[in-house]
Amino acid sequence: MNDLSLLAACGQVCIHNPSAICVKTMPTKHEQKKWDCRYAATEGKPRVAQVLRENHHLLPTSGDALDLACGLGGNALLLAQSGLTVQAWDLSSVAIDALRSCVATECLQMQAAVRDVEKQPPVPASFDVIVVSYFLQRALAPALCAALRPGGLLFYQTFIKDKVSQQGPTNPDFLLAENELLTMFAPLRLRVYHEAGALGDITQGLRNEALFVGQKT
Ligand SMILES: C[S@@+](CC[C@H](N)C(=O)[O-])C[C@H]1O[C@@H](n2cnc3c(N)ncnc32)[C@H](O)[C@@H]1O
Fold first, then answer.
1. Which domains does the chain have, with CATH numbers?
2. Among 8, 117, 156, 177, whose CB has the most other CB atoms within 10 angstroms?
3. 78: Cβ below 6 Å to ligand 1?
4. Confidence of residue 26 (pLDDT cuts 50, 70, 90)
5. How far is the CA of 70 from the centre of ligand 1 (A)?
6. Is 5 a residue whose pLDDT tops 80?
């Protein structure tokens, strides 16, 4: 069995690109290698998650921000361009190296680091803004709430079970249940929420993902 069929057998196909893989059940080293391969083959500008793109006017004008499981760091770059001091963490050294090159050319306030966020989550009261896109580790939710300073904002976006196309993971463990972000981040004050799923005319609007912005009170 080759790497791809092994990963497909695990039922975890990448949420953006069906040919890319995010496997939570495999050892970290293996997953790291998979993401390294994917990013080595990726071209173009890193994308910014819709939840941040459409709500960046909610950001504070200064403070510390974290892009958790940042990949190529599209969110991190927008946060830094918005005047925040940014940490960007990901398992993939290829992604982090690419992000560092970007930061160097743009002279931004950012530290990008290879870090396993499951083993080393953010410490309490360390950030004013945290962004998580297309990464779902439910066990991290309490640490994310705790890592926000009072008034701090969490921007979260990922795929839902009630999606209307093949896009995204197939393994239900990696898909959000109904209103799940609201439950996971119940300690935060709700500021923005979107979860349209399969309601109404499914040719219109964002259907496959839930978007959440919450604030620590
Ligand atoms: C689908 S990508 C999303 C990347 C980015 N947030 C985005 O929206 O483009 C998932 C990312 O999670 C990272 N990742 C997976 N497990 C991780 C872990 N335990 N610690 C840190 N990063 C992890 C992968 O390397 C990958 O870059």
1. 3-215 (3.40.50.150)
2. 156
3. no
4. low
5. 6
6. no
Query: Which ligand 1 atom lies nearest to the CA of residue 69?
Result: 22
3-state secondary structure the chain: CCHHHHHHHCCCECCCCCCCECCCCCCHHHHHHHHHHHHHCCCCCCCCCHHHHCCHHHCCCCCEEEEECCCCCHHHHHHHHCCCEEEEEECCHHHHHHHHHHHHHHCCCEEEEECCCCCCCCCCCCEEEEEEECCCCHHHHHHHHHHEEEEEEEEEEEEECCCCCCCCCCCHHHCECCCHHHHHCCCCEEEEEECCCCCCCCCCCCCCEEEEEEECC
Report the separation in Å between the CA atom of 152 and the middle of ligand 1, taken as the mean of its atom positions: 22
Residue 69 Cα, ligand 1 centroid: separation in angstroms?
4
> In a mutational test of the pocket of ligand 1, which residue from 119, 135, 156, 159 has the highest number of ligand atoms less than 8 Å from its CB?
135
Gap from CA of 200 to ligand 1 centroid (Å): 32
Give 104-159 pLDDT, tens digit per residue: 988 898 999 999 999 999 999 999 999 999 999 999 999 999 999 999 999 999 99
